[in-house]
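Trying the structure run again after the queue cleared.
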Amino acid sequence: MIYRYDFRYALAKLPVNTALRLNFRKMVFTGRKENVSREKPVIFAPNHRNALIDALLLVYSSYHLKQIVFLARADIFKQKFVAWMLRGMRIMPVFRMRDGIDNLNKNNEIFRNAARILKKNNPLALFPEARHNPKQSLLPIQKAVPRIVLPTEASLGFQLHSQIVPVSIYYRDIFGFLSDVYVTFGTPIEVSEYKELYEENPSLAINQLRQDMEKGLQSMVVNIQNDAFYDEYLHAIDWNADKIAREKYAERKEGYLQASLHIVRALDDLCEKNPAAFDTKIAGFREALHILKRHALTPKDRLWEPSSATSLIARLSALILTAPVALFGFLNGLFPMLLNKKLQGFFKDKQFIPSVRYAAGLFFVPIFDLIQSLSVGFISHNWLLAFLYSLVMPATFYFALYWRKWRKAALRDRKVQQFVRQQPETWKQVLKLIQL
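Done. Tokens:
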């Protein structure tokens, strides 16, 4: 049964986690040892921005042998093969109103299984927003988690002592490869504290727990609710977060996340308390963006710290010297790259691109490494060479992907450096306009 230990899950975890780690430049986890109990049943309640990657980050973050069971929307279980794979990954379906009112009764068995999971002191994970949201905002929290955990606790006299742990997942660049991700485990909510209210009025208790979960997540998630100025908020983060992270949160490993939270709250506070000053600030952001576009620059360019000519020469020289290795890597990874591009064409929604890219790296790179290594062995009749190639192929391909990222960054920094040198007064004007 899905609520029992499965050795297949344990075997798959190593390659899955390895591929996930290679997908990011930096992965930062905070609060997991302080806020995730080993002794108590836990329900993880994360925000949901990045399809499969969100779930894999939770699996990666677990520091003990317990196997997380996920609940996901039922419509992804329609195909039998896909359903079989998902259940093998310890994922159970949850039916929503849009799946048909007749299917809602099927949730009763799903919730009973979830209760068995908690009673066995195994972790459960459910995305409480109930759908993807690639934007940097939090959707309304639904009632699925309270509907599972409160009746389970009530059936045991609230002696299970289960906890709900809100989880914030923040991507510095949700669509970018080799970017940064920050996963924060918040203060756990003790379900037993709702005992009296649940015994008095179950509906009120469910709604109160839902509201408390929402408050917990709202305090952790970079939550841009001001839709009319959503892009301006994003630009403010791009322009100011690195600088604020160094100045205010240098001692914290999740400093960039804290800086992003600070920026959103500061703009929200300004909008509420001084609308005129907020309008002026937004107008300044828009003027700065217009100037940058005129000079072929973007909000993600590092305007605060332009590279020196010496630094750029050194970086570009290093790129030229290592170009043959990168070319070798790209040639060896050509087929996985082409398949990845082909697969991405099947998905109209951009939020699935990171998951497709991850899956392509997990499956296609090892497969083509094996095929190409065997080909080298059969052609050369030198199996030592084939073995060495099997090690070199994925390493050089991964280096090539980093090389491409470094090249793009160096060229962007070169444009910024030219802008600063040729238009110093305009650059100073932009810095004043974008300052928070």
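Strands lie at 24-30, 42-46, 69-73, 91-94, 124-126, 163-171, 179-185, 189-190. Worth checking whether this holds up in the mutant runs.
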